[in-house]
Amino acid sequence: MIPAGFEGVEAQLWVWLVALIRPGAAFIAAPVFGASNVPVQLRLVIALAVGIPGLQTTGFVLPADGLVSFAGFALVLGEVLAGLAIGFAVQIGFAAATIAGELIGNAMGLGFSAMVDPATGNTNPVIGQFLSILGTFLFLAIGGHLMLAAITVESYRALPPGDAWLGADALRQLAYFGTVLFAAGVSVALPVAFSIVLVQIMMGVLSRTAPALNLFAVGFPAAILAGLVLIAIAAPVIGEGLIAAMMAGLEQARMIALGS
User: Fold this and answer.
1) Per-residue pLDDT at 117
2) What is the C-alpha end-to-end distance of the chain, expressed in Å?
3) Residue 63's domain spans which residues?
4) What pLDDT sits at residue 188?
5) What is the pLDDT of residue 1?
6) Residue 192 in domain
7) How high is the pLDDT of residue 247?
8) Quick check: 195 and 230 in contact, CB under 8 A?
9) Which of 96, 90, 88 has its CA nearest to residue 180?
10) SS3 5
């Protein structure tokens, strides 16, 4: 016979499991939280700390047949989709740093030079890795991780568990928001990349006037040096562009959380 003090333990554990799903899915898709070097245990603790307050605002009650039923499966699937959409919207804005780094690196001639990204485990160009690290610092500096947690909690009001299915308009807006990724990446990289292209054009003209000049021996170091100097000069503008892209991603995530 189960002691009276432990009668509701199983139901409470199921409620905590439901509270883990949406924040956990959002953190898997979101930047910083979804990095491979973040321990899973820490991610679970943070997801539970975010999910329980949000779930308490809805008066959630477990389905009559439990989670191992059609209603429970639909509830879990809706929670996963809502969390992934919120985290993916933030990730789209954050990925502008990688796009900008690839454009600048290719303009500098460093497209062949790559490093392993600790966040994803993939290889990215050196400049892209640098801007990704810069974007991580800026994301934490503007409180993006706190905004993401607040957005996830707010989503429980407009999208309560069991009714968290995103509409076609929300999914369409999320797909269209992907164009912001390329536009933001190009706008961030444009000042530096365009200036490097001008340097390369100048080196091409110089090679025509002095054919004996080894273009690869002179042009390649000149492009790298010009790129490093231009990145240092344009660092404030690059930072502002990355912050604007990340804020756009957070705003899109908020729109999804509000069901609009």
Assistant:
1) 56
2) 49
3) 7-257
4) 86
5) 38
6) yes
7) 92
8) yes
9) 96
10) helix
**Measured between alpha carbons, how far is residue 78 from residues 44, 234, 251, 256 in Å?**
19, 43, 21, 13
Rounded to two decimals, the pTM is 0.80
Structure tokens at 203: 């080196």
- Residue 1 inside a domain? The answer is no
Cα–Cα distance between 103 and 9 in angstroms, integer?
54
* Mean per-residue pLDDT pooled into runs of 10, the chain (260 residues): 56 80 88 81 87 81 74 84 88 87 81 58 73 89 90 86 77 80 84 83 76 68 82 88 90 83
Count of beta carbons in the 10 Å neighbourhood of residue 201: 10
Domain count, the chain: 1
| DSSP character at residue 124 | E
Q: For tokens 């499991």, what's the residue?
A: 17
**108 is a domain residue:** yes
Q: Is residue 129 included in any domain, yes or no?
A: yes
Q: How many CB atoms lie within 10 A of CB 102?
A: 19
